[in-house]
């Protein structure tokens, strides 16, 4: 973490002139490891989840390279099964779920609310250490022999396989508590620490989105914890709940698992929606279209998402009535999601659109999420899903949401708040090029997967029938392009910390409270406690020459 | 440790069904069953998706070109925050469209779940990592291959003896999870002659991707000859080889490489005079080591109850039992093993 400490001579006269910020106000290992400052914890999360993302991405690259040939190019089937499992488990549990709330949420949420910190700073640090423990345990599970169950741990295979399932289960359990504590913290912070004058409907939509996410984290994650504990007990003590040989029911596991993991999809995607809502407004310099509807749709999604888990199980033989209800509600949840997409597009309409890199990532999100969301509608239809279930069509669909939408929104947010977090700006030209490469690489990777999926290519296959080879090879070429784009992005972001090209106080002309704080913010964020007198996203008070709003 | 890298080619790699034809739109394979609702609804939703995608990207592209910020202090052209009629329209219209999709899809799935009364009942037994099929009014089973009659309703009882699998035939548009401890059913009416893929679509361990069966849809005349029950008594080793490829090759090699189980090469050897004899093997009987000579009785026992005599060196691995394998097929397997013998 110490690489983030700017190389200034703290004893020199220049340092006296430069105001202390949250990065340089103290130094030393313990000032980071024991910090209670939400921004430092957020930065540690940012570094951590980025490493997890790169690991997960490396596994993805290996998976795709292996699939260059129908009979598999690199690994045995057993090794391939471990690698795709690692890709899924690292990406879902260690990267996507904690990424946005843990890093950007931690840093930006209190700033947006005009608060000095989150409501429960110690719990915040505990969340981070639980995340770290979970990540270490997951890595340990690789050393202890790996795991080949898929990230879904379906029973009874996960009960019989002779691998480190208990260790990775423990990792998921611990990561779950990290998630619950973060959610709890954000709920309390949102209720108690809003600046004077910030009513609920003056809260930025990133806050609304994190609030809805937090509700899901607190309510759904315990079910996952209980489920992985039951799997561990079943493996160790043969209690007979999921194992059909002991009278258990493997389908019960599927119900438990998806009761968490479907809401988890929204735990992952709602924060991304929040980021996009902010960025669309700021970079179009226009109030967000349909603010209240977007805020309510986040809550509606959070509630309905608890009632659609059965759509992961349309081929499992559940009753006709269950199929009816789950399919109906799945289509129903499409509506609030569609409202968001339409509202973002309407916000861009007649805006003042700045084509800087955060906005390019945002536009890429809007296009990719349109595909991800619309293909979800295709999968909601019962008889069509029976054909497409567990094929590459589903793989492509959820990568359009997980990778193309959530990861891209995360990138967009990192680019947007980078100047605020570090006080420096990255190489904008490289950023635009990287965004283009990532967009092309991503679509080249996953469009062929839609086609081969609807033609019947099942997922989680180490080898395949030769007629699918051209699609697999196109997809592998795509992922190489994608990897180049991401490597370029990592390069210019890290390089910007050393080049130290100074950012403006209000780089993009935002009107939410975080842009009122000094750049980078000092320990307790604001020089004077902010008071909110305007409606949210009111750009009329912004002085376009100085990018400042009148100080209240 | 690299033994697993050497893989025996399984039947779909060396002998796949012919590649399926693709339909006019290129997204689906040509339908080979009566479930045309799947294709109809797929392309309907697809068209709706393309329509909305074009609108969304069209408005975005237009806006980016026309409303692009030219000077850094350019304000937005409009500060509108909402438009109730517009919001009602884009809530209600998609709602109506998705409700149509829902009703259409649900109706289609009811057809799939209701097995016609005149269907022929087959049984598909899934185990790691192969398929075994039982036929109505026939004692013979087939392994890794299935024969069905064109235009006759075919229904299946699906059984798993180990973990989750799924019965998936893309060209028939049907899929059903195969769940240990439950009897699932699936049915379809094959409408085209030819060969079709049957995949396992639920992850089931190491050789999940090789859990494959080739499905032949044949005419009534050919079906009446019971093609699954063909056994060439003059050449039992050939039949044995087919059984090997369908059932045994994921765990036993024929080139001397140990996989999950011991290789079959060297089970029979030629002695100095050139006569075929059984090899000596060390096995565990109730935990005690014994040396036995490989013979018909030992092979038969190892197929029907593999735990009785486990080969030393493979104690920790468990083999699936095949108690129902017919005697003539076991003899065919033994004849095939004998062809692997080396010597003079």
Helix-strand blueprint:
The complex is a heterodimer of chains A (about 550) and B (about 350).
Chain A: H1 13-17, H2 29-33, H3 38-66, H4 77-113, H5 121-143, H6 157-160, H7 165-192, H8 205-237, H9 250-284, H10 291-304, H11 320-348, H12 357-380, H13 382-388, H14 392-422, H15 428-454, H16 469-499
Helix pairs in contact in A: 3-4, 3-5, 3-16, 4-5, 4-7, 4-9, 4-14, 5-7, 7-8, 8-9, 8-10, 9-11, 9-12, 9-14, 10-11, 11-12, 12-14, 12-15, 14-15, 15-16
Chain B: H1 11-14, H2 36-66, H3 84-113, E1 120-127, E2 130-135, E3 138-143, E4 145-149, E5 154-160, E6 165-169, E7 174-178, E8 184-188, E9 194-200, E10 212-218, H4 220-224, H5 236-248, E11 268-270, E12 276-278, E13 280-285, E14 288-293, H6 296-304, E15 310-311, H7 327-339
Parallel strand pairs in B: 1-5, 4-10
Antiparallel strand pairs in B: 1-2, 2-3, 5-8, 6-7, 6-9, 9-10, 11-12, 13-14, 13-15
Helix pairs in contact in B: 2-3, 5-7, 6-7
How would you describe this protein?
The complex is a heterodimer of chains A (552) and B (344). Chain A is mainly alpha-helical. Chain A has a single domain, classed as Cytochrome c oxidase-like, subunit I domain (Cytochrome C Oxidase, Chain A), CATH 1.20.210. In chain A, helix 4 runs antiparallel to helix 5 and helix 10 packs antiparallel against helix 11. The N terminus of chain A is likely disordered. Chain B has 344 residues and is α+β, with helices and mostly antiparallel strands. Chain B has 3 domains: 78 residues, Helix Hairpins (Orthogonal Bundle), CATH 1.10.287.90; 110 residues, Sandwich (Immunoglobulin-like), CATH 2.60.40.420; 104 residues, Cytochrome Bc1 Complex, Chain D, domain 2 (Orthogonal Bundle), CATH 1.10.760.10. Chain B contains 7 helices and 15 strands. In chain B, the strands form 4 sheets. Chain B has a 5-stranded mixed β-sheet. A 5-stranded mixed β-sheet of chain B has the order 4-10-9-6-7. Chain B has a 3-stranded antiparallel β-sheet with strand order 14-13-15, with no helix packed on it. In chain B, helix 5 packs across helix 7. The N terminus of chain B is likely disordered. At the A-B interface, helix 4, helix 9, helix 10, helix 11 and helix 12 of A face helix 2, helix 3, strand 7 and strand 9 of B.
């Amino acid at each position: 973490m110490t690489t983030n400490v700017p190389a200034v001579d703290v004893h020199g006269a220049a340092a006296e002139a430069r105001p202390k910020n949250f990065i340089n106000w103290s130094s030393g290992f313990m000032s980071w490891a024991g910090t209670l400052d939400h921004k430092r914890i957020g930065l540690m999360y940012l570094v951590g989840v980025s490493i997890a993302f790169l690991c997960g991405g490396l596994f993805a690259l290996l998976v795709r390279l292996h699939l260059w040939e129908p009979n598999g190019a690199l690994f045995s089937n057993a090794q391939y099964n471990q690698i795709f499992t690692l890709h899924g488990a690292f990406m879902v549990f260690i990267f996507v779920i904690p990424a946005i709330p843990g890093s950007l949420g931690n840093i930006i949420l209190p700033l947006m609310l005009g608060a000095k910190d989150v409501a429960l700073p110690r719990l915040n640090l505990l969340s981070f250490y639980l995340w770290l423990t979970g990540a270490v345990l997951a890595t340990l599970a690789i050393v202890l022999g790996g795991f080949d169950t898929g990230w879904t741990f379906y029973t009874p295979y996960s009960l019989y396989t002779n691998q480190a399932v208990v260790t990775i289960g423990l990792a998921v359990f611990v990561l779950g508590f990290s998630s619950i504590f973060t959610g709890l913290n954000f709920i309390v912070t949102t209720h108690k620490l809003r600046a004077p004058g910030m009513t609920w409907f003056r809260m930025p939509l990133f806050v609304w989105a994190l609030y809805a996410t937090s509700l899901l984290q607190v309510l759904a994650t315990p079910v996952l914890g209980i489920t992985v504990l039951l799997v561990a007990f079943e493996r160790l003590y043969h209690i007979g709940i999921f194992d059909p040989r002991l009278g258990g029911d493997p389908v019960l596991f599927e119900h438990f698992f998806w009761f968490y993991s479907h809401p988890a999809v929204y735990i992952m995607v709602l924060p991304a929606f929040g980021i996009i809502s902010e960025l669309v407004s700021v970079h179009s310099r226009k109030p967000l279209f349909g603010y209240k509807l977007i805020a309510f749709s986040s809550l509606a999604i959070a509630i309905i998402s608890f009632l659609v888990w059965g759509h992961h199980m349309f081929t499992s033989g559940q009753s006709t009535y269950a199929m009816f209800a789950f399919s109906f509600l799945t289509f129903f949840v499409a509506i609030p999601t569609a409202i968001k997409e339409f509202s973002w597009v309407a916000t861009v309409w007649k805006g003042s659109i700045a084509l800087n890199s955060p906005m390019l990532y945002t536009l890429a999100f809007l296009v990719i999420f349109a595909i991800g969301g619309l293909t979800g509608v295709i999968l909601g239809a019962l008889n069509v899903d029976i054909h497409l279930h567990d094929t590459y069509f589903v793989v492509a669909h959820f990568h359009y949401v997980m990778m193309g939408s959530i990861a891209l929104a995360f990138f967009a947010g990192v680019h947007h708040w980078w100047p605020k977090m570090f006080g420096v700006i990255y190489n904008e030209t490289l950023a635009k090029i990287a965004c283009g490469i990532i967009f092309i690489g991503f679509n080249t990777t996953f469009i062929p997967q839609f086609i081969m999926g609807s033609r019947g290519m099942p997922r989680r296959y180490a080898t395949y029938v030769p007629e699918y080879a051209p699609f697999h090879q196109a997809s592998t070429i795509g992922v190489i392009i994608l990897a180049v784009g991401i490597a370029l992005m990592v390069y210019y972001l890290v390089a910007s910390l050393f080049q130290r090209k100074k950012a403006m106080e209000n780089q993009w002309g935002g009107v939410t409270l975080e842009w009122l704080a000094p750049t980078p913010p000092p320990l307790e964020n604001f020089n004077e406690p902010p008071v909110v007198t305007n409606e949210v996203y009111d750009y009329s008070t912004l002085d376009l020459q100085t990018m400042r709003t009148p100080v209240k | 440790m690299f033994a697993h890298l050497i893989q025996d080619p399984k039947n779909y790699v060396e002998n796949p069904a012919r590649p399926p034809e693709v339909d006019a739109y290129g997204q689906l394979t040509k339908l080979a069953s009566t479930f045309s609702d799947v294709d109809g609804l797929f392309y309907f939703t697809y068209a709706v998706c393309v329509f909305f995608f074009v609108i969304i990207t069209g408005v975005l592209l237009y806006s980016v070109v026309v409303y692009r910020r030219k000077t850094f202090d350019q304000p937005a052209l409009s500060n509108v925050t909402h438009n109730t009629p517009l919001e009602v329209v884009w809530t209600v219209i998609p709602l109506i469209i998705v409700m149509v999709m829902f009703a259409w899809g649900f109706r289609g799935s009811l057809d799939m779940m209701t097995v016609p009364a005149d269907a022929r009942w087959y049984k598909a037994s899934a185990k790691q990592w192969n398929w075994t099929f039982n036929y109505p009014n026939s004692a013979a089973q087939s392994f890794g291959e299935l024969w069905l009659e064109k235009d006759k309703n075919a229904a299946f009882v699906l059984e798993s003896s180990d973990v989750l699998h799924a019965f998936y035939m893309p060209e028939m548009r049907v899929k059903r999870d195969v769940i240990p401890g439950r009897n699932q059913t699936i049915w379809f009416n094959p409408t085209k002659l030819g060969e079709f893929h049957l995949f396992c679509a639920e992850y089931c361990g190491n050789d999940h991707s090789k859990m494959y069966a080739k499905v032949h849809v044949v005419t009534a005349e050919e079906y009446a000859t019971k093609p699954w029950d063909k056994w060439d008594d003059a050449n039992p080793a050939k039949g044995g080889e087919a059984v090997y490829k369908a059932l045994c090759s994921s765990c036993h090699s024929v080139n001397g490489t140990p996989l999950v189980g011991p290789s079959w090469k060297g089970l029979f050897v030629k002695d100095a005079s050139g006569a075929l004899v059984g090899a000596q093997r060390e096995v565990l009987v109730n935990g005690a080591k014994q040396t036995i000579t490989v013979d018909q009785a030992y092979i038969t026992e190892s197929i029907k109850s593999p735990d009785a005599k486990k080969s030393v060196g493979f104690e920790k691995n468990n083999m699936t039992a095949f108690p129902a394998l017919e005697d003539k097929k076991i003899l065919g397997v033994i004849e095939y093993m004998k062809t692997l013998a080396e010597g003079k």
